[in-house]
Amino acid sequence: MHILLVEDDNETASYLIKGLKESGHVVDRASDGKEGLFMAFDSNFDALIVDRMLPELDGLTLITKIREKNSDIPIIILSALGEVDERVKGLKYGADDYLAKPFSFSELLARLDAVIRRNQHENNNSLLELGDLKLDLLSRRVEREGQIIDLQPREYKLLEFLLRRPNQVVTRTMLLEGVWEYHFDPQTNVIDVHISRLRSKIDKPFKGKQMLFTERGAGYALRYDE
Amino acid sequence: MMNNPFNLASFRLIFIYTMLLGLSVGLVLMFLFFTTARDIELEADQKIIEKVEDLNNIYLRYREQGLLNYIRSETSRATLDIYRLYDSQNNYIAGNIKTEPKDIKINDDGWIEFAYQVNENGVEKVHYGRGRNFITPRRNLRLIVGRVVNDEKILKERFLYSSLWSILIIIFLGIFGGYILSRNFLKRISDINKTSKKIMDGNLKERLPTTKGKDELNQLSSNLNEMLDRLDSLMSNMKEVSDNVAHDLRTPLNRIRTNLEVTLMSNPDIDQYKKSFEDALVETDNLIKTFNSILSISKVESGTSDLDRNQVSLKELILNMHELYEPIADSDGIKLNYEVNEDIIINGNYNLLSQALANLIENAINYGCSNDNPSINVGAKQNENLLSLWVSDNGIGIRDADKDKVLERFVRLDSSRSLKGSGLGLNLVSSAVKFHEGTLKLINAKPSGLIILIEIPIDS
Description:
By secondary structure, chain A is α/β, with parallel strands linked by helices. In chain A, 39% of the residues lie in helices and 22% in strands.
């Protein structure tokens, strides 16, 4: 993926570029808002990572200008302002996701992946499918290997969230935000227990391959390898 | 800069007020004067008209000689009446106006006003008269009958003069009084100024002087004092935060540093590097969590946060929390129960309440479940205007002496700090409760266990 990073801090930028390159992305960097705007209009990027506070042109203004051009390029804001209301403000200005500094790199990668894919194929299908795992959004029926799986409402929501992001890493924070709509860090591993419950329903009873994986240091991923 | 009372708003007000007062007093005096003067004038005019009638009668009865005699006898003594008699050739015959009247003004209704020269003890003076012409029926004599209006004129002038003076005195007294009052006011202002200067210079315990009175200045001072108290508590809160940060964040930072340094020193292989890095990552993540907690606590506590309030259903809140934590409690062999019947609505911040409840449940799971048959109860109920929300466990409870201590920042009763946690959980709960104007109580249950009870008064 071709990514534009608009970040004024050289140190942060070089770490991010290194990390993104190692994860297989091509990265261009702009060191202020104006340069970022020119570069964004100049060539075709798959996603933008924009720092909230930038010299010359503020991050939110930059996003507004890009959105005014009717561009639906995925944008993630990085910000030292981590409050929930700041986050809401960022999303209102047209960002697809908002990440408060300091963040873990795997969190950024997972979210980047999520916004790019969301942009690529918005799934309007009423049937979510991965391998032999099927989830019917209308009848709320879940089955694997043709066998119906009985899920609690939240387990269903969790699985739906994962199935909408097949073969992608999702972090615990993304799950807590996306499935439970909470914006705080629990001190315990609550999410892990929910995942293992889900796993015991969709993986363990079946002789097929494991699908719900734990990604060490990052989160979870629902995969199906042929 | 504040030494000139003329610059004060109060003085300006008094000045305007005095001017208005002076003006109205002037108007009243004028009105009085003109109405009285007119009455006197009318009465005098009436007398002249009567006199003209008398003269007419005298003329009719005694003819020219009678008229002449009458005028001579009238003018032989001091009188305010004035006469001047002419013959048919318009020559002066008799009367107490010896000189020809000047500046004669004839009004429409027959009245004439005029000025004439008088020799008083050798000094030439101008007198003023008002009267009527009386012409005998045979037209051989003409008489000016009138009265001296000098005194009236003088009275008018005096009146105007004294009115002007009284207005001037009123204005002077007003302004002088205003000056005195303002100076008094100014002194209090300057006291306030001095004190605020002291406060600005860093003497933060200083407070503005207040007196027993209830006037605006006093109210202002006490409001400012309250504001200073509030700022003071915020400041000490901030100070506490930075002390805590220094104290409690240094330790993990030091661990990270030592870990990395020692790893580098020992000529490590790739696995040792990896291990060391992983440890450092875990420590940093915890640091970030702690840091975020401190920030959100002080944001809630400062009261400056613009956390919005919405209608929050406590039933929904508890059900969602139960749903989130039931699996982890279950995996630890703990029964997590909830009791909430009616739907209780509170005007609050959903995220903050969730976090507070989450912290309480996590605390109960981590610390409150040491016995054989552990269980946790989460519940809410409403008693008229009081709303209760609680989390209880059947663990060992808490010593009375520790009850206040656990609400403070970074306090962990487990002195070895072997269990994970930042020591900020209950502190956040306490801030969240404060935000919702409620109270937080720690109660030891019988036979064992701890009840954490949050009570929030609500408007019915």
